[in-house]
Design a protein that fits this description.
Number of helices: 13
Strand order of the largest sheet: 2-8-7-6-5-3-4
Enzyme class: transferase
Order of helices and strands: HHEHHEHEHEHEHEEEHHHEHEEEH
CATH class of the largest domain: Alpha Beta
Distance between the termini: 53 Å
Structural class: alpha/beta
GO molecular function, one term: transaminase activity
Radius of gyration: 21 Å
EC number: 2.6.1.-
Number of domains: 2
CATH superfamily of the largest domain: Type I PLP-dependent aspartate aminotransferase-like (Major domain)
Number of strands: 12
InterPro entries: Aminotransferase_I/II_large (IPR004839), NHTrfase_class1_PyrdxlP-BS (IPR004838), PyrdxlP-dep_Trfase (IPR015424), PyrdxlP-dep_Trfase_major (IPR015421)
Helix content: 40-55%
Cofactor: pyridoxal 5'-phosphate
Bound molecules: pyridoxal-5'-phosphate
Length: about 400
């Protein structure tokens, strides 16, 4: 006998993975250059040169110690460097002991959720949302409540949100810039969200934590403001990752920030650390703790994403697709050309376009394009998008 829940998670059909496998098979048949795989959110620009240079230098200079265990929350000097960077950028006064280094944003979320969740607790998600949130919340026996999308701008349907918050609401997860829509929450959206949460905290007499999942924080396009959420809502816990900003998804490094201003901050931090311990994380990868700390003021060359975004958005709109303007990340989330987004994604395959249906993100009737690919591939794919649109005429 094995755990039925884990068996189900380990064997469940993943639409993205199936698309990816299909793409590999198809590439063997028609050639890789004729398959247009927009399914995966793997950064396409290399890490800044300083990242590799720093890793090589540290391997040479600290050969005897660099591979050792660090303290469980991460090397104190590395944490302080990351805190200093946040302080410079956001005018804060964080210290090393408010940061807990993790194995990427996925682990940050699991640690925070594991640390917070008590029997009966609920979490609110806004569609479209990153599908793994459900797995992480249900993994710690929390309950998920989804607010349907606000499809004109992918901001927040506040009346649905206000009704969804109850005395059982432990937290709310936001992700801006967003996967899959690319939309950045405006300051106004965040202020309204904060005002509602403050009123609900007062009504129910307990904190409601805003978990801000920010792996795309630095991938924001020209002129788009990504507000620093802890300055808008006191009970914000930040889950961050260097996977996208430094193009390091395989190195697995991120952090949880529990600012001192958070209600019961010391307990929340300690409980997140306890969850990390119970999940067997021990410590985040030691070499990349130091590399990320030295390079945390840098960003991979995001101009490529901005160019790809403009190219695709303009061209798709001209072909008749409805696209909400993204402000960052590297995803577009247009409406599918038929209500059944699964059927639409199937039809796109006939044109060798691999597009992820929106249902998995809680937003049926849409599809996701991950445009973290070579610009040249997008240029060659445009006639396929046109042919796909024409097939619906
Ligand atoms: N959150 C969102 C919204 C993501 O898109 C991803 C990865 O794609 C993650 C979390 C997990 O990131 P990481 O690689 O840092 O675990």
């Amino acid at each position: 006998m094995v755990s039925q829940r884990m068996l189900q998670l380990g064997t469940a059909r993943s639409v993205i993975r199936e698309l990816f496998e299909y793409g590999r098979q198809r590439a063997a048949e028609v050639g890789a250059e004729n398959v247009f795989d927009f399914s995966l959110g793997n950064p396409s620009v290399p890490a800044p040169a300083e990242v590799n240079d720093t890793a090589i230098r540290l391997l040479r200079e600290q050969a005897d110690t660099i591979h050792c265990y660090t303290s469980a929350p991460g090397d104190p000097a590395a944490r302080q460097r990351i805190a200093d960077s946040l302080n410079r950028r956001f005018g804060e006064q964080y210290t090393a002991d408010e940061l807990y280094l993790t194995v990427g944003a996925a682990a940050s979320l699991c640690c925070v959720l594991g640390g917070l969740t008590c029997p009966g607790d609920e979490y609110i998600l806004f569609a479209p949302y990153f599908p793994e949130y459900r797995v992480f919340i249900e993994g710690v026996k929390g309950k998920v409540k989804v607010i349907p999308p606000e499809p004109e701008h992918f901001q927040i349907d506040f009346s649905a949100f206000e009704q969804a918050v109850t005395c059982r609401t432990k937290g709310v997860i936001i992700n801006s810039p967003n996967n899959p829509s690319g939309v950045v929450y405006s300051r106004q959206t965040l202020e309204t969200l904060a005002a509602i949460l403050r009123a609900k905290e007062a009504l129910y007499g307990h904190p409601i934590y805003l978990i801000s999942d920010e792996p795309y924080r630095e991938i924001a396009f020209h002129g788009v403001e990504v507000p620093w959420v802890p300055q808008i809502y006191k009970d914000t816990i930040v889950c961050y990752s260097f996977s996208k900003s430094l193009s390091l998804p395989g190195e697995r490094l991120g952090y949880v920030l529990v600012p001192k201003q958070v209600t019961d901050a010391d307990s929340v931090y300690a409980a997140a650390a306890g969850a990390g311990r119970s999940q067997g994380y021990v410590n985040a990868p030691s070499l990349f703790q130091r590399v990320a700390a030295e390079c945390c003021d840098l960003t991979a060359d995001i101009s490529v994403y901005e160019r790809n975004c403009a190219l695709l958005t303009d061209a798709l709109r001209e072909m008749g697709y409805h696209v909400v303007q993204p402000g960052g990340a590297f995803y577009l989330f247009p409406r599918s050309l038929e209500p059944d987004d699964m059927a639409f994604s199937e039809r796109a395959k006939q044109f060798d376009l691999l597009l992820v249906p929106g249902s998995g993100f809680g937003a049926p009737g849409h599809f996701r394009i991950a445009y973290c690919v070579q610009t040249e591939m997008i240029e060659r794919a445009l006639p396929r998008f046109k042919a796909l649109a024409d097939s619906y005429q």
